[in-house]
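Input record (one chain):
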Amino acid sequence: MTWEARAARPPSAAFLCDGCGREVVQVFGPPGGAVACPGCGREHDLGRDATPPGSRLLSRCLRCGLDRLYVQKDFNKKAGLWVFIVAAALSIPTWGLSLLAATLIDLALYYALGDATLCYGCGTVHRGYLRNPEHGPFDIHVQEAVDRRLRTA
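The corresponding structure, as predicted from the sequence alone:
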């Protein structure tokens, strides 16, 4: 599958509501407009000035406008963890073949699934955009430079 085919789904952004912490997903299409949080009803409108009209190449976060973005596979980490928990539980009666099966499933999903672009600043997940060559994989040094929260030693 090519990058263009993977990005054929409509562009969207998913983020956590500032009010209640529930996930809000805004799909960008012809109707446009703000989207309400399913938990508290708070209105959220994401800026679309981060991408030129008609372009599917993301250069800035649609929520906070930060230009520090990274790319990762668009896969639910909890689901992946459960695949290996079940495989580990079944490894003794299957003589380890369940771990091999889980590894093969993981490898197939790695090549089958598309990418998502995430913001270092606010954590917004952008889906349906082409991969920008300027955005690499996650870098802890960039995260620490962007994240200015106080931490304990």
